[in-house]
Here is the input.
Amino acid sequence: MIKTLIAGVLAFACAAPALAQDDEIDPKTVDLAKLIACETYDVPTYNTVAFWLAGTEGAQARKHFGLTEVKSPNFMLKQYRLAQPIAVFGRTTSLIAFNSSGPMAVLDETDPHPLAAQLKIEPAIDVPAKFMGERVIAEKTETADGLTTQTRITLNVSTVTTHPGKTLAGCSYKIEVL
Here is the structure.
Protein backbone atom coordinates (compact mmCIF):
# COMPACT_ATOMS: atom_id res chain seq x y z
CA MET A 1 0.00 0.00 0.00
CA ILE A 2 2.84 2.37 0.69
CA LYS A 3 3.76 1.89 -2.97
CA THR A 4 0.26 3.03 -3.98
CA LEU A 5 0.56 6.11 -1.76
CA ILE A 6 4.00 6.88 -3.15
CA ALA A 7 2.79 6.34 -6.73
CA GLY A 8 0.02 8.88 -6.17
CA VAL A 9 2.46 11.34 -4.67
CA LEU A 10 4.93 10.83 -7.49
CA ALA A 11 2.20 11.66 -10.00
CA PHE A 12 1.94 15.03 -8.26
CA ALA A 13 5.71 15.47 -8.42
CA CYS A 14 5.57 15.34 -12.21
CA ALA A 15 3.74 18.63 -12.09
CA ALA A 16 6.10 20.22 -9.56
CA PRO A 17 7.37 22.97 -11.90
CA ALA A 18 3.81 24.21 -12.34
CA LEU A 19 3.31 24.17 -8.59
CA ALA A 20 6.49 25.87 -7.42
CA GLN A 21 5.87 28.17 -4.48
CA ASP A 22 8.04 30.70 -2.71
CA ASP A 23 7.07 29.51 0.77
CA GLU A 24 8.05 26.12 2.19
CA ILE A 25 5.12 24.24 3.65
CA ASP A 26 5.76 22.87 7.13
CA PRO A 27 3.77 19.62 7.36
CA LYS A 28 3.75 19.92 11.16
CA THR A 29 1.40 22.90 10.87
CA VAL A 30 -1.24 21.01 8.88
CA ASP A 31 -4.51 20.15 10.63
CA LEU A 32 -5.49 16.61 9.54
CA ALA A 33 -9.22 17.27 9.98
CA LYS A 34 -9.03 20.28 7.67
CA LEU A 35 -6.93 18.34 5.16
CA ILE A 36 -9.57 15.58 5.14
CA ALA A 37 -12.41 18.09 4.76
CA CYS A 38 -10.82 20.07 1.86
CA GLU A 39 -10.68 23.15 4.09
CA THR A 40 -7.95 25.71 3.44
CA TYR A 41 -5.44 23.33 1.88
CA ASP A 42 -4.23 22.77 -1.65
CA VAL A 43 -2.36 20.14 -3.65
CA PRO A 44 1.15 21.32 -2.66
CA THR A 45 0.17 21.11 1.02
CA TYR A 46 -1.25 17.60 0.60
CA ASN A 47 1.88 16.58 -1.34
CA THR A 48 4.10 17.82 1.47
CA VAL A 49 2.18 15.82 4.08
CA ALA A 50 2.02 12.70 1.89
CA PHE A 51 5.75 12.82 1.11
CA TRP A 52 6.48 13.29 4.82
CA LEU A 53 4.35 10.27 5.78
CA ALA A 54 5.70 8.07 2.99
CA GLY A 55 9.31 9.21 3.18
CA THR A 56 12.27 8.51 5.41
CA GLU A 57 10.78 10.68 8.16
CA GLY A 58 7.55 8.66 8.16
CA ALA A 59 7.96 7.52 11.77
CA GLN A 60 8.41 11.12 12.89
CA ALA A 61 5.38 12.19 10.87
CA ARG A 62 3.20 9.42 12.30
CA LYS A 63 4.33 10.30 15.83
CA HIS A 64 3.60 13.99 15.24
CA PHE A 65 0.05 13.28 14.05
CA GLY A 66 -0.49 10.52 16.65
CA LEU A 67 -0.93 7.84 13.97
CA THR A 68 -0.58 4.11 14.50
CA GLU A 69 -0.80 2.04 11.35
CA VAL A 70 -3.49 -0.63 11.47
CA LYS A 71 -3.95 -3.47 9.02
CA SER A 72 -6.36 -2.49 6.29
CA PRO A 73 -8.65 -5.05 4.69
CA ASN A 74 -8.36 -3.00 1.49
CA PHE A 75 -4.99 -2.96 -0.28
CA MET A 76 -5.90 0.44 -1.79
CA LEU A 77 -6.14 2.09 1.64
CA LYS A 78 -3.40 2.72 4.17
CA GLN A 79 -5.17 2.94 7.54
CA TYR A 80 -4.18 4.67 10.77
CA ARG A 81 -5.66 4.82 14.27
CA LEU A 82 -5.40 8.29 15.80
CA ALA A 83 -4.12 8.75 19.35
CA GLN A 84 -6.85 11.36 19.83
CA PRO A 85 -10.13 11.41 17.87
CA ILE A 86 -10.68 14.23 15.40
CA ALA A 87 -13.89 16.00 14.46
CA VAL A 88 -14.63 16.21 10.76
CA PHE A 89 -17.92 16.85 8.93
CA GLY A 90 -19.64 17.24 12.33
CA ARG A 91 -18.64 13.70 13.29
CA THR A 92 -15.84 12.20 15.37
CA THR A 93 -13.48 9.44 14.27
CA SER A 94 -10.33 7.75 15.50
CA LEU A 95 -9.65 6.01 12.19
CA ILE A 96 -8.41 7.59 8.97
CA ALA A 97 -7.19 6.15 5.70
CA PHE A 98 -5.14 7.37 2.78
CA ASN A 99 -5.72 6.31 -0.80
CA SER A 100 -3.49 7.34 -3.70
CA SER A 101 -4.95 10.84 -3.86
CA GLY A 102 -5.89 11.90 -0.37
CA PRO A 103 -6.97 11.34 3.22
CA MET A 104 -10.36 10.03 4.32
CA ALA A 105 -12.18 9.76 7.62
CA VAL A 106 -13.51 6.26 8.29
CA LEU A 107 -16.88 6.90 9.92
CA ASP A 108 -19.15 4.53 11.83
CA GLU A 109 -22.12 5.13 9.52
CA THR A 110 -23.84 2.45 7.50
CA ASP A 111 -25.84 4.84 5.36
CA PRO A 112 -23.72 7.36 3.40
CA HIS A 113 -26.75 9.31 2.15
CA PRO A 114 -27.16 11.72 5.11
CA LEU A 115 -23.49 12.75 4.96
CA ALA A 116 -23.56 13.05 1.18
CA ALA A 117 -26.65 15.27 1.41
CA GLN A 118 -25.03 17.39 4.13
CA LEU A 119 -21.93 17.88 1.96
CA LYS A 120 -24.00 18.47 -1.22
CA ILE A 121 -22.48 15.44 -2.93
CA GLU A 122 -24.38 13.78 -5.74
CA PRO A 123 -23.81 10.06 -6.16
CA ALA A 124 -22.10 8.73 -9.28
CA ILE A 125 -22.84 5.19 -8.07
CA ASP A 126 -25.72 4.45 -5.72
CA VAL A 127 -26.60 0.77 -5.52
CA PRO A 128 -27.14 -1.37 -2.41
CA ALA A 129 -23.55 -2.65 -2.33
CA LYS A 130 -21.79 0.62 -3.30
CA PHE A 131 -22.09 4.38 -2.92
CA MET A 132 -19.63 6.79 -4.47
CA GLY A 133 -20.00 10.48 -5.06
CA GLU A 134 -17.96 13.64 -5.24
CA ARG A 135 -18.27 17.40 -5.35
CA VAL A 136 -15.63 19.44 -7.12
CA ILE A 137 -14.03 21.99 -4.80
CA ALA A 138 -11.48 23.39 -7.27
CA GLU A 139 -10.47 22.58 -10.80
CA LYS A 140 -8.05 24.31 -13.14
CA THR A 141 -5.88 23.58 -16.14
CA GLU A 142 -2.52 25.31 -16.54
CA THR A 143 0.24 25.27 -19.12
CA ALA A 144 3.80 26.19 -18.23
CA ASP A 145 7.01 25.39 -20.07
CA GLY A 146 5.10 23.23 -22.57
CA LEU A 147 3.57 21.08 -19.82
CA THR A 148 -0.20 21.13 -19.33
CA THR A 149 -1.56 20.02 -15.98
CA GLN A 150 -5.03 19.70 -14.56
CA THR A 151 -5.50 20.24 -10.83
CA ARG A 152 -8.64 18.80 -9.32
CA ILE A 153 -9.69 18.86 -5.67
CA THR A 154 -12.86 16.98 -4.79
CA LEU A 155 -14.79 16.15 -1.64
CA ASN A 156 -15.75 12.47 -1.69
CA VAL A 157 -18.14 10.13 0.12
CA SER A 158 -18.09 6.40 -0.51
CA THR A 159 -18.63 2.94 0.86
CA VAL A 160 -16.44 -0.09 0.21
CA THR A 161 -17.23 -3.74 0.81
CA THR A 162 -14.00 -4.15 2.78
CA HIS A 163 -15.37 -1.76 5.41
CA PRO A 164 -18.93 -2.93 6.16
CA GLY A 165 -20.96 -0.50 8.25
CA LYS A 166 -18.54 2.35 7.47
CA THR A 167 -18.68 5.45 5.33
CA LEU A 168 -15.47 6.96 4.02
CA ALA A 169 -15.35 10.69 3.44
CA GLY A 170 -12.48 12.94 2.53
CA CYS A 171 -10.62 15.04 0.07
CA SER A 172 -8.91 14.04 -3.14
CA TYR A 173 -5.99 16.18 -4.28
CA LYS A 174 -5.07 15.30 -7.88
CA ILE A 175 -2.80 16.72 -10.51
CA GLU A 176 -2.66 15.08 -13.90
CA VAL A 177 -0.26 15.82 -16.68
CA LEU A 178 -2.35 16.13 -19.85
